[in-house]
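Observation: inputs received (chain + iron/sulfur cluster).
Thought: call the complex predictor directly.
Action: predict_structure
Action Input:
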Amino acid sequence: MVRGCTENGYGGRAAEAVLEIYREYGLWLEERENYFACVPGCHTCCTVSVTATAVEAGIAAEFIGVKRLRRLMEGVRLPAADGLESANAIAAACLEGRWEDHCPEHDFSPCPFLGQGRCSIYPVRPFGCRAFFSRVPCGKAGAAEVEPWFVSLNLMVQQVIEHLSRGRGWGRFVDLMREEAGVGGGPSCRCAVMPAVMVPPWELVILRPYAERIMAVVAFDPELTAVLHSAFRQR
Ligand code: SF4
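Observation:
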């Protein structure tokens, strides 16, 4: 349990489940020691373009505290984030055949929570930050490199976290944190339900062990359990 983020705190059961998913993801990564090139102090991926759910922003805000958060956010001024769509909105559009691939502009400005090359809110950073990894040093390569199944895993976890936050805000983490601080900002859209697991059939067998862990965490949510079950338990 992250200090300050208790069962009775912001987000209640959804927040508890999100924290448990973070923990399971961390354990899963520990089992793959030396698999990634990422090292402490590397922060190429720490930009203002990281996205999150309002539940995740609430967890982070509770951890940081209102006064400190307001101090951190007061001077942050950013152009509006246009064209952002959440993972479940994209999944629904794909399933309905109305998805048009477009890449929203990425703002590479450094994240305001970055301090001396390190994340100042590391224990409560959102999943969008946790999912950034690379098999090669991305500073040298110019971009991160990972296997397709790892992208699928991260998409699935993002979809699950969004479902747990359904009806709440979704957008850039920094915009959600500005809103938490009461200094502007706000979500780009609302979190949507997870319509299906967007993992190709040949990757389901690779992801099943982690999906089983997630299913145990979200067993209290029958709708989410049914979606995951239909993808992973019938093959
Ligand atoms: S919250 Fe932390 S890990 Fe995430 S982008 Fe900001 S500094 Fe990096």
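Thought: report the result.
Final Answer: Residues 24 and 30 are 10 Å apart (CA to CA). Strands lie at 51-53, 114-115, 118-119, 169-172, 189-190.
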